[in-house]
Amino acid sequence: MRKIIYNQYGNNEVLKITNIEEPTPMADEILIEVKSASINPVDWKIRSGDLKMMSGKKFPKGIGCDFAGIVKKNGEGNSKFKVGDNVFGWLPYKEAGSFSEFIIAKESLTEKKPDNISFEEASCLAMIGGTALIALKEKGKITKNQEILINGCTGGVGHIATQIAKVFGTKITGICSSKNIDVAKKLGADFVIDYRKQDVYQHDKKFDIIFDTVGNLPYKKAKTILKKKGILLNINPSGLFDILHGLISSKYKIIMASVNNEHLRELASLSATGKIKPIIGKSVKLDEAIETLSLLEKGERILGKTVITN
Ligand SMILES: NC(=O)c1ccc[n+]([C@@H]2O[C@H](COP(=O)([O-])OP(=O)(O)OC[C@H]3O[C@@H](n4cnc5c(N)ncnc54)[C@H](OP(=O)(O)O)[C@@H]3O)[C@@H](O)[C@H]2O)c1
Prior knowledge:
Layout lengths: L1 E5 L9 E4 L9 E10 L2 H7 L4 H4 L5 E2 L3 E9 L11 E5 L11 E5 L3 E3 L6 H4 L2 H15 L7 E5 L4 H12 L3 E6 L4 H7 L3 E4 L12 E6 L6 H4 L3 E9 L5 H9 L3 E3 L6 H12 L7 E6 H12 L7 E5 L1
Helix pairs in contact: 4-5, 4-9
C-alpha cells in the first residue's frame, strides 16, 4: 500500500510517498481503507518538529490525523464495526498517517459515517469539529443567547465553530476577509467584520465568548471587548507564558485539541441532522498531496477544507 512517510523532522521535502506492507490491526484497532483524508495546519507543524512534545521522536512517521473510509478488518475482540462499514475518525498526533491508502485506527477514535454526508465531508469533521466542541462547549460553556465572536469564521476551525455556535442559539459576530462575508452569513454569522476594513476593538459590542482561531487577538487587548464574565479561547498559543496564563486564568483558555469518542459521536449526530457541514474547497489525489501541502503551508488560501482522496 502507498503512504506518505518521513524519517526526520524538517521541511516539506522530508515527505515521500512510499510502498509499505499493509498493517494488521491489534485488539481495539481496525484496518481502514482510506477514501478521504483532510489537511490541517497541524500536519505541517508536526512534520516541522514544532510539536515534538506531542508527536514524539519515533520514526518513520506518517502525516495526517483526519480520515474517512471503509472498515476492512477488525482487530481481535472488536465488535463495534463490521467489515464494509463506512467510518470516519481521528488519529492522535503520535499515530498520524492518514495520507495513505490504508490505516490502522483505534476503535474508540472511529465512528460510523452518517449516510447523508460524503467521505470527503466526513474526513474533515474530527480535527476542526473536535477543536470547536472542546473550545465552545467544554471550555467556553456556550449557552443560548450569548454574544460570540469567532475570529477566522470561514477558516477550517472557524467555519464549523460558527455552525456549532448557531446550533446553541447564540448571536454570532464573525471576522473574515471581504470575499468570504456572504459565506460567513450563510454559515450562521449575524454580523460580519471584514478584518481588512474594520477594527474589532472599535465595534460597539462586548462578548461572552471570543473564539480566536487565528491567534491575533491577545488577551491584553481582547479583554477590553469581553463582558465581565466573558472568556477568550485561543487555539494558537504563543509560548510558555501564554500557556501558563491559560492554565491559571478563568477568563482565558488555551485549547490543544485531543479528540475523543464523545466528540466524534456528537459530530456524527450534528452532521446526520444537517446542522453542520464542512465546506470542501479542493480535492487532490495522494500523488499531488505533498505539493498541495507545500502550497497550503506557504499560505495558499482555499475557502473550506482541502482533502486527499483515494
Ligand atoms: N490548538 C489546537 O488544538 C488547534 C486545532 C486546530 C487548529 N489549530 C490552529 O488554528 C489555526 C487555524 O486553523 P484552521 O484549520 O482554521 O486554518 P485555516 O483553514 O487556514 O483558517 C485560517 C483562517 O484565518 C483567517 N484569517 C487570516 N488572517 C486573518 C486576520 N488577520 N483576521 C481574521 N482572520 C484571519 C482566514 O480568513 P480569510 O481566508 O478570509 O483571509 C482563514 O479563514 C492554525 O494555526 C492551526 O494550526 C489549533
